[in-house]
Amino acid sequence: MKILLAEDEKRMASALVALLQQEKYEVKHVADGGEALLAIEEDDFDIIVLDVMMPVMNGFEVARHTREAGIKTPILMLTAKSQIDDKVKGLDQGADDYLTKPFQIEELLARLRALGRRSARFQEEGLSFGDLTLESTSATLTCNTTGQSVRLSEKELKILEVMFQNRKQIITREQFAVKIWGVESDAEYNNVEVYMSFTRKKLAFVGSKVEIKAVRGLGYELREKDV
């Protein structure tokens, strides 16, 4: 299981990284909110652990931008603050759980296990929609009605992962560009349109009743065709 740890206090970060690695977690550590958001946009994590008080961008802002980008990865907020208002704010910005410093290691590990189970369930459920099944490890799209399968390119796979995880929601071109090419990429919106066209052809090839619908002026939505 892969965890992103965003913590700017060096001693705390070092201790947590050592502990989590001892528990067989794969850990990526960053020291500020800007690095955290960039890592979230460029890589896939099972759990995100955010300290609230970080330089560049605080944990609340990172959580909000993460959810606005359509990323559903479970988020655990860490903070030295214990006020109810801060906990409410964190949850309102998209956090799934909240742990106040100082905390017991056993409680942290228990909360991570709970979020890990939630992440696993979400990933399992998020790889199917309508008559389609998406296998990320093999980059294969299968239509369960026709039995037809097709291999996807890296960009096509990422497009469908984002859409499966945000089913029946409109996803903007900006969100696709950030999620697939990264926040610092020079990719234009026409890159999104080109790969969206390729992905539509793959849906047609397998004979699916699911389609990618363009919503004028807003973005794209994955939906089942009207019968």
CATH architecture of the largest domain: 3-Layer(aba) Sandwich
Uncertain runs are: none
Strand order of the largest sheet: 2-1-3-4-5
Number of helices: 8
Q: What letter string, H or E per element, gives the SSE order?
A: EHEHEHEHEHEEEEHHHEE
CATH H-level superfamily of the largest domain: Response regulator
Major sheet details? 5 strands, parallel
**What fraction, in percent, of the residue positions are helical?**
40-55%
Beta-strand content: 15-25%
Overall number of domains:
2
**E-strand count:** 11
**CATH class annotation of the largest domain:** Alpha Beta
Q: From the helix content, strand content and strand pairing, which structural class follows? A: alpha/beta
Gross morphology: elongated
Please describe the structure with a list of short key phrases separated by commas or semicolons.
8 helices; 227 residues; 5-stranded parallel β-sheet; Rossmann fold; 4-stranded antiparallel β-sheet
Descriptive overview:
This protein folds into 2 domains: 2-125, Rossmann fold; 128-224, Arc Repressor Mutant, subunit A, CATH 1.10.10.10. Helices cover 45% and strands 22% of the residues. It has 8 helices and 11 strands.
Short synopsis of the structure:
The chain is an alpha/beta fold.
